[in-house]
Task: inverse folding
């Protein structure tokens, strides 16, 4: 029996390795490839039939203790973009901030109301596992019918109410390539991630967060906002097998995770599908990684403690988020 399990494990590893590195012959994957990867990379049932945490199960007590040990200087850096209060071409849903009570001679109180449609490219946020489905299913074989006008019946952001506390590794691919930023439409492959690991002398492991800097906000600062239809740099779908192989707990980028255009005819967001639905891995979207990249370069430290806590929305598809890096 042990020999049989070992053979199965070896076969699974070979499948993951093949998916990860097979793009060298052809960068363009098809919907058929996506369907195959949905099966080959699936975490469904891995932590039980009723599991809703997904890869956050990989952030164990031991992992949190290890991550806490990364704090040497007590220096913290926000990884959130300041909320955009006016509509932009890349963020048409502006953050709304309204003062409903202002102080005066007889009233000492100040009260405001906040409102934001946070999904998209403008506001830093976390995607819960019910944010995106595939063929009528969410992570762990949950039906999209569990989503109603009241919100998510399974896989909602409330499952992350205890917060995220783990080791993060910043993958600064523009720095790897000697660029200020990656141009729109630039795909990031597993080879890029491993080349960066080799350069910084760090290896991503189980329970880690992988944060991909494409330089989106640096480019925006220099050249202005651009139409999302022109594309964004991001992960190529083939890189998801690498995330599975390394048992990454959570993934984030400074844009929309997927490279856009995706290179997959008929599917614009294959990375979102594979990560959320097959792996059960939450996503940190539209982060601003410029300040943390600058601090990491200054300290020559590309790993740090990641802390983040979404709002406790019982049936939410995600939450605005201010993720913090502490060195």
Result:
């Amino acid at each position: 029996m042990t020999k049989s399990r070992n053979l199965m494990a070896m076969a699974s590893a070979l499948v993951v390795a093949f998916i990860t590195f097979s793009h060298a012959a052809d960068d363009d994957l098809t919907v058929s490839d996506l369907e195959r990867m949905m099966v080959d990379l699936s975490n469904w049932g891995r932590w039980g039939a009723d599991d809703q945490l997904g890869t956050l199960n990989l952030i164990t007590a031991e992992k949190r203790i290890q991550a806490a040990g990364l704090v040497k200087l007590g220096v913290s850096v926000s990884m959130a973009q300041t909320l955009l209060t006016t509509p932009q071409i890349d963020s048409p849903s502006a953050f709304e901030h309204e003062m409903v009570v202002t102080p005066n001679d007889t009233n000492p109180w100040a009260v405001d109301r906040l409102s934001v449609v946070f999904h998209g490219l403008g506001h830093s946020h976390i995607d819960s596992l019910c944010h995106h489905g595939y063929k009528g299913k969410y992570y762990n074989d949950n039906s999209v019918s569990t989503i109603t006008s009241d919100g998510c019946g399974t896989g909602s952001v409330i499952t992350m109410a205890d917060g995220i506390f783990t080791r993060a590794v910043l993958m600064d691919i523009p720095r790897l390539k000697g660029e200020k930023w990656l141009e729109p439409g630039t795909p990031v492959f597993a080879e890029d991630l491993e080349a960066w690991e080799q350069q910084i002398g760090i290896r991503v492991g189980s329970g880690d967060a992988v944060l991909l800097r494409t330089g989106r906000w640096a480019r925006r600062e220099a050249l202005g906002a651009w139409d999302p239809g022109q594309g964004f740099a991001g992960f190529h779908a083939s890189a998801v097998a690498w995330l599975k192989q390394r048992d990454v707990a959570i993934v984030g980028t400074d844009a929309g995770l997927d490279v856009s255009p995706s290179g997959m005819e008929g599917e614009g967001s294959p990375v979102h599908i594979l990560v959320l639905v097959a792996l059960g891995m939450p996503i940190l979207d539209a982060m601003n990684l410029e300040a943390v990249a600058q601090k990491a370069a200054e300290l020559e430290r590309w790993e740090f403690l990641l802390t983040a806590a979404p709002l406790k929305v019982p049936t939410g598809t995600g939450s605005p988020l201010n993720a913090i890096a502490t060195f």
